[in-house]
Design a protein that fits this description.
The protein contains 9 helices and 7 strands. The chain has helices spanning 3-16, 20-33, 35-45, 62-68, 83-92, 94-98, 136-144, 158-161, 177-186, and strands at residues 52-56, 75-80, 102-106, 119-125, 145-156, 194-202, 205-213. Strand 6 and strand 7 (205-213) form a beta hairpin.
Length: 226
């Protein structure tokens, strides 16, 4: 492996789990790169005053701030595996955290620390690349959703990711429309509960927006329906 290949792999690892000085720089880059995907996914969630909204992988915390501006007397929850991102997002949302409207935690996504059926909406932007093959992260997101709740998951189309040298198979799992739908189905959503739409991010970048809605009458389960 030459030096350039090593640099691309290091970037991929930082995107997966930002840390240290390089992670802080990655956080600032994420804030720019995720601006339009965040807006598209948040618009799709149709946030209402009083909603409890959870973000999986809040990164530098820009979407958290946008969500906090929409929920009125609701509550925004966020979880990220990176201590560097927790520090950056906490600084960016200090006032909302102090007021109790925002709660951020550093933890894995495979055992969410909130009760079943306690969340109205779930947001996950550019994090599905790092989810486990058994889709436990989706299972957990579906578990905490209330009946009728909605999850919005954005990922850049795999045909675009293939051109980016940092998104190798050792750090990123890539998706097309069908495989992204399969991820949600493996996470407990039925076919009729899932839609995947191709969206234009600009600059020649195609994205995928997946929506999964938990049916009325379903409180929560941890078993995928395959």
């Amino acid at each position: 492996m030459n030096g350039l290949d090593g640099a691309w792999k290091a970037l991929g690892r930082q995107l997966r789990h930002p840390s240290g000085v390089a992670g802080r720089v990655i956080g600032h880059a994420m804030a720019i790169a995720n601006r339009r995907p965040n807006r598209i996914a948040i618009d799709a969630l149709e946030i209402a005053p009083g909603d409890v909204v959870l973000e999986l992988g809040f990164g530098p915390g820009r979407a958290i701030k946008q969500l906090a501006s929409l929920i009125g007397d609701g509550h925004v929850l966020g979880i990220d595996q990176s201590a560097t991102m927790l520090a950056q997002a906490s600084r960016h949302n200090r006032q909302a955290i102090t007021s109790g409207r925002v709660e951020l935690r550093q933890r894995p996504f495979d055992a969410l620390p909130w009760p079943t059926a306690s969340v109205d909406k779930v947001l996950a932007v550019n994090t599905a690349y790092f989810f486990r093959p058994d889709a436990i992260e989706i299972l957990e997101a579906r578990r905490v959703l209330r009946p009728g709740g909605l999850m919005a998951l954005y990922a850049t189309d795999g045909s675009v990711m293939a051109r980016w040298r940092f998104s190798g198979p050792d750090t990123h799992r890539t998706f097309d429309r069908e495989s992204l739908a399969v991820l949600l189905r493996n996470g407990g959503f039925d076919d009729g509960e899932v839609t995947v739409t191709r969206v234009d991010i600009g600059f020649g970048i195609a994205g995928l927006l997946a929506l999964g809605r938990k049916p009325i009458g379903i409180v929560g389960d941890r078993q995928a329906r395959r």
